[in-house]
Write a structure and sequence with these properties.
This protein is an alpha+beta fold. The protein has helices at residues 20-26, 171-178, 184-187, 291-309, 331-342, and strands at 31-35, 44-48, 51-57, 63-67, 81-83, 86-88, 95-96, 102-104, 122-123, 126-128, 131-134, 158-160, 165-167, 204-207, 212-218, 237-244, 248-255, 259-271, 274-278, 281-283.
Length: 351
């Protein structure tokens, strides 16, 4: 992939620890910031790349995302409220319509032509996989590198959206851990893997127009330990990873009897060492099973990963391949790092 052109709509927030060039490159991309089901008419704050945004739903049900600051006196709009289709600032009662334009200043009701300087900074909203996606600078949705979770709206597959996970670590480190197959035996031995079966068979990784594609086959079962008996003797598990840089990937796991589980690992880089992780998933088996059990198993696995990600040093994902040692099973990780480096991101950027 080529380096991403930079479009400056506003500057990097004061106090942000991102390298300025990296911030501008990452600001072109699209990320999930919230679950659709969590949006209400009470404005809530979400943060992307250190930019604070107000997310809310109007009376008609339309969802909007604006910078969480009133251009009049700098008060957070998340302290305000929704009235009909307008967002109201709590300090002086200014009304902003769904285009972000100020349409009412109660202190001067005679004003009919209000300056555009009172307009809000609006961000695009894309609804996909139960999530709200946005970009700080990107405006062309057709060029966005959205992950393709093609089973989400398929009637033969059950769509499940667990609670998000907040991680005190970088999105690059988290994503790389998600596509790492060599850590199963050690990090996930309490959930599904086996510490006595650590060998990683050779696998293939190829670059694609969206990122990279990896296919890995092994005898490591994906069933929880209490359900390992469901796997036929000698069954080989195929896991396919499709990575959509910068911070999304889909894992497809092929179960016995033509079962297919797809897990989307989608990071919102809140800050340089803070990640909000969203994990939509689909399955075409056990579709009437207990969702709480799915949530619990999902939470256990990501908690196991979280402990590693939050303790890694450096916090940054080193894009200079020579900065850390690698073995053959790291081929997906090193390919991922090379792609980010080719985008023009720093060799040791903070994310």
């Amino acid at each position: 992939m080529n380096a991403i052109p930079v479009l400056n709509l506003f500057s990097q927030p004061h106090g942000s620890d991102f390298d300025p060039t990296d911030w501008n490159i990452l600001a072109q991309q699209w990320y999930p910031v919230a679950r659709i089901q969590d949006v209400t008419d009470k404005p809530q704050q979400v943060i992307l790349l250190d930019v604070k945004m107000a997310l809310y739903k109007t009376e008609s049900g339309s969802i909007h995302l604006v910078r969480d600051i009133c251009p009049h006196r700098g008060v957070p709009l998340t302290k305000g409220w929704v009235k009909g289709e307008d967002l109201v600032c709590p300090y002086h009662g200014l009304h902003y319509n769904t285009d972000g334009k100020c349409v009412k200043i109660p202190a001067q009701p005679e004003l009919t032509q209000i300056s555009d300087r009172f307009s809000l900074t609006k961000f695009p909203v894309v609804l996909r996989y139960g999530l709200i996606w946005t970009s700080l600078f990107g405006r062309n949705v057709t060029d966005a590198n959205f992950p393709n979770l093609d089973t989400w709206d398929n009637g033969e597959h059950q769509a499940i959206l667990p609670p998000y996970v907040d991680i005190g670590g970088s999105s690059g480190r988290q994503l790389e851990g998600f596509i790492d197959v060599a850590h199963f035996a050690w990090v996930h031995s309490a959930s599904f893997a086996d510490a006595d079966n650590p060998v990683v068979q050779k696998y293939s990784t190829v670059r694609t127009d969206y990122g990279l594609h990896t296919e890995y086959v092994s005898d490591v079962s994906n069933y929880p330990h209490g359900m390992q008996h469901l796997a036929p003797e000698g069954f080989l598990w195929k896991r396919v990873f499709d990575v959509y840089p910068p911070f999304s990937a889909i894992l497809t796991i092929y179960f016995p009897e033509n079962g297919v589980l797809k897990i989307l690992n989608a990071c919102c880089p809140v800050s340089h060492n803070k990640t909000r992780l969203f994990v939509p998933l689909t399955r075409n088996f056990d579709t009437t099973g207990d969702l709480e059990a799915v949530y619990a198993f999902n939470a256990q696995i990501f908690a196991e990963d979280q402990d590693m990600v939050e303790s890694q040093k450096p916090e940054e994902l080193p894009l200079d391949i020579s900065m850390e040692a690698h073995f053959e099973a790291d081929r997906s990780s090193t390919t991922y790092r090379r792609i980010l480096a080719e985008w023009g991101l720093s060799k040791r950027y903070i994310v």
